Amino acid sequence: MKTEKNILELETVALLDDENAIEIIDQTLLPGRTELIRLRTAEEIWNAIYLLQVRGAPAIGVTAGFGIYLLTKLVNVPEESDIPEKHDENFAILEETFRKQKAYLDSSRPTAVNLSWALNRMEKVFLSMKENRALTMREVKERLRQEAEAIKEEDIDVCRRIGEYGLTLVKPGDGILTHCNAGKLCACRYGTATAPIYLGQERGYGFHVYADETRPLLQGARLTAYELASAGVDVTLLCDNMSASVMQAGKIQAVFVGCDRVAANGDTANKIGTSVVAAVAQHYGVPFYVCAPTATIDLSLKTGSEIPIEQRKPEEVTEMWYKERMAPKNIKVYNPAFDVTDHSLIAGIVTEFGIARAPYDESLREIFRQKEGDGV
Ligand code: MRU
Description:
Bound molecules: 5-S-methyl-1-O-phosphono-5-thio-D-ribulose
Structural class: alpha/beta
CATH superfamily of the largest domain: Translation initiation factor eif-2b, domain 2
Order of helices and strands: EEEHHHHHEHEHEHEEEHEEHEEEH
CATH topology of the largest domain: Rossmann fold
CATH architecture of the largest domain: 3-Layer(aba) Sandwich
């Protein structure tokens, strides 16, 4: 469905429960066309994530949460029976589908941990109802819906809190560089790396934002530049090889990026090219900040070398966006979708529970202690 609405008025991901569908903005068509599409089957959800119609770590997590709910909801079981013996039988039917679809959705992209984080969270809630024989299957399904909606609602709050902490790191009039799209389009409202920018905009900070185009899929040019310009932010588009030039010229006071997975030592996977920006920033003395919801922090991995890095098709480099193929036929292509920024290049990791600083092994654990203390 085509729409003329401003991109900021649209929801990145929405559950249309009555229609048994997830509605997303097809991000592969932006900024030229704004189209909402509905995902109904497991294959449609898997493809939308794999093809980056919905993308960015938090949005992938939210889509997976809605996806596993809908696919479980659609299983045909007697919904009203409150006979305890029937609970076990019907629950087992739901469980078979839940497990199968969870594994399937989890295979759509490997790097952003929010995908498995959301699916595991849904599984925990689901399995907690297994022994509760007083529950009807309608109630089981309803509880799953509530959890999926909670993942989305929390994302909005988490991003806003990241924005507040991030804003303490910059001052009015600063130049901020960002890479890829960690904006509204990757999450549910403020984005992560753009949250300080949006809050600053609301408060008249007058930031000058520089958005890397982000080869090969151009999330910076197509998405970040688009959404920030739509919000009235002063944004300038850069090619990926220009960050040194703007930093050398003194135009950048801070870099904010999002992330797909942070290891326990602070090493951070984000869109390919991020680590180059971090190295350049260190050279020019510009602080490089990673904005990371705790859902993106994976303490089970000691270092970034354990983070699985997605490899994508060569055509994204050689053909996409060009009228004609621009590289020699049969040329070998290396197309990793992410790289890992070494923790030594990161000035701070901005979470919803505050800003972690080196040594990250300690500070990230402390962030999680606070999270547990908050009962989250
Ligand atoms: O391949 P993408 O577009 O899903 O990659 C997205 C990024 O690398 C983002 O920077 C990251 O997911 C953070 S979004 C808060």
